[in-house]
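Posted in: Protein Modeling Q&A

I'm a second-year student putting together a small comparison for a lab meeting, and my supervisor asked me to include a predicted structure for Iron-sulfur cluster assembly 1 homolog, mitochondrial. I've never done this before, so apologies if this is the wrong subforum. The sequence is pasted below exactly as I got it from our records. If anyone can share the structure token output, I'd also love a short note on what stands out.
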Amino acid sequence: MSLRPSDAETALGIKIGIRNAGCSGMSYTMDYAEEVSPGAEVISQRGVTVVVDPAAVMFLIGTELDFSEEKLSATFVFNNPNVTSTCGCGESFGVG
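Accepted answer (user: helix_wrangler)
Welcome! Here is the predicted structure, written out as tokens:
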């Protein structure tokens, strides 16, 4: 994923999905949404539009997306109630 500032000017919002990766099975993906695919969920709140990839919808139901800023880092945090396992580094998850 390569998010460039110039892409943000033409994007509809942020696209969230999942892919098969990591030791627990799946990991989250984020990119700029250039279009809305058929079956995608579109959520607009507080001036932010999030497009959920149709293949990821069933794995992300009930998920809260937050943004965390620490002294040395800033990151998106997925609070997913469907997760049944995670890897030690926290980069991947499993849904049972």
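A couple of things worth pointing out for your meeting: The two ends are 27 Å apart (CA to CA). The mean pLDDT is 85.
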